[in-house]
Amino acid sequence: MMNLAEAVKLDFAYLETFTTRNETAWGSLFLNENEPNYYDANHAHISEECPDPVLLADEVIRFYQSRNIIPRFYLYQLEKQQALITELKTRGFQYEEFVSPVQLWTGQIQAVPDRHATIEKVTLENFNEVLQIQGSIKEFGGKETIEKIFRKQFSHPSFTYYLLRCDGKACAAACMFEEKNQARVESVATLEAFRGKGLIGDLLFFIQKEAVRKHIDKLWVLPINERVEKVYSRYGFETIAVMKTGHAFLGGKSIKEIQG
């Protein structure tokens, strides 16, 4: 449980690089009025049981609608959220659930075959090549929003982006988000023409070595689905927990629609 608590704490630190967290008696309100359509930047985070779902729903809806942002909730420990889920559905919220694996690197570096690939740190010189890769991944959401977030993360000291080239051509990228002695692999993306070639393994191998060099105690990854979870498992990441998450939203696309 301590490991999972650390993963949640790291997730909050990650979110706070592009949004503002407002603590409440019942959870957190995340807000970035400059990115109203970016779900992770604008949502209520609820993990404990709410004693008054009606009052909570009123507060969250009023908070976001007063800023012309679609109200949405990310719900955790769903067994405690049934009354709130029922209340939100009666108010017209759509609702979906996800199984979200949480993986922690075992510390073992898995060697990868030589694929004539090179990996370099992202700088201003190769910035646009990585921007093209990140913006092409529909699973990440809208291109315009993703490009804005990438630009902001690139200039943030907690993020280091890496670009992988095959025979000189830019084809994949990933980043490592660092917070004190912990880190997380983020924004792993491969151009469609280069998928299925094992390039993710090359990037993970490189980032793992960087984590060792930087004396990172724990390296995390949050796969978006079980298929991706299996990929990371081949490269030394062990699933330590599986969280069931609820997403309630009063408009716009579901996360499943965005991810395809």
UniProtKB/TrEMBL annotation:
Superkingdom classification of source: Bacteria
Spans through the membrane: none
Source species: Metabacillus flavus
CDD domains: NAT_SF (cd04301)
Domain N-acetyltransferase: 117-256
Name by which UniProt lists this protein: GNAT family N-acetyltransferase
